[in-house]
Amino acid sequence: MTVDALGRAMRDLRVSVTDRCNFRCSYCMPFDEYTWIERNQVLSFEEIVRVVGIFEGLGVRKVRLTGGEPLVRRDLDQLIQRINSHYATLDLSLTTNGALLGTQAASLYAAGLRRINVSLDTLRPDRFRQITKRGDLQEVLAGIEAAKRSGMSPIKINAVIIRGTNDDEILDLVRYARNNQFEMRFIEYMDVGNANNWTLDKTITKREILDTVHAEFPVREIGRANGSAPAIDYAFLDGSGEIGIIGSVTEPFCSSCTRVRLTADGKLVTCLFSESGIDIKGLLRNGADDEQIRQQIIAIWSARSDRYSDIRWENLRNGRYTAAKKIEMITLGG
Ligand SMILES: C[S@@+](CC[C@H](N)C(=O)[O-])C[C@H]1O[C@@H](n2cnc3c(N)ncnc32)[C@H](O)[C@@H]1O
Ligand code: SF4
Fold this sequence. Notes:
It is a single chain. Strands 7-8-9-6-5-4-3-2-1-10-11-12 form a 12-stranded mixed beta sheet. Helix content is 33%, strand content 17%. By secondary structure, the chain is of the alpha/beta class. It has helices at 45-57, 76-86, 101-110, 125-132, 137-150, 170-180, 206-216, 281-285, 290-302, 308-317, 329-332, and strands at residues 12-16, 62-66, 91-96, 115-119, 155-161, 183-188, 219-223, 232-236, 242-246, 259-262, 267-269, 278-279. The chain contains 11 helices and 12 strands. The structure holds S-adenosylmethionine and iron/sulfur cluster. The site of iron/sulfur cluster (SF4) has 12 residues, from loops.
């Protein structure tokens, strides 16, 4: 087992398949100065499958495809099909904004995809357009329906809750998820990237979310899946499903973080809040064999000592927090 400098294993791989996106969510997208990854720098499906295989050999058990918006990458179903056929025991999932699920859900399912997370922060059309700038709520709801019809399960609905933006919809989102047998997952608003002007007062805390839900739909805590998932899960006492809450700002979980990230242009990133990544694509394209790449990944992971969210929380509490430069979320994959 490969462990990092703080004794954490490497278990989950997030692969950003593109930094492009059909939405422009205000809490995620960088401002104008962002330089998009050039197409010839984006890893091919062959390259991604090869790297996934090397990670699998190093103990990774879960792979999540993300971005940017992964469904804007052409023929994504073919990548899923290839990963599934080579590494059938991997737990493969996808995070999407859902806009293209209406046309792609059936082919993604046919390629072997079963688990998806769809981002949905509001059920109000005007607000949806305001948050995403380009999105259409009906299209996303229809996309989620198409995923359900295709047979995908579980379907998890991700909502980032921001004070003064959508914090009045926590219970509406819970009702929507319960009525459709989806699992609602609330995410504390975070200081990702460099342009979202984050301040702590905009974050609705995990505790606030839990109290709001619990007052209407009583829950009991289950804990983190596998002990290392970002969300703490809660089961409704009436037996009608679960919710998860990701409290990475106010209840950081760095000590159990087993996630490694691969950017669309083949950089390895060891933390969601990293300032930079380490290039793997160069090795892939310059004739390195799997063992050389494996040794490079081991070296990177062994040196990992990231604990950004722990430190952020310490600094927030003692008034020393300042925004640090980071890789954009669309680059490294949320
Ligand atoms: C970067 S997106 C990529 C996948 C896809 N485009 C989507 O929106 O689901 C992955 C997740 O990150 C979340 N996210 C983006 N910016 C965030 C922020 N500032 N704080 C918390 N979560 C954020 C999104 O809501 C989404 O659930
Ligand atoms: S959260 Fe997802 S859909 Fe929204 S801008 Fe970021 S990558 Fe695009």
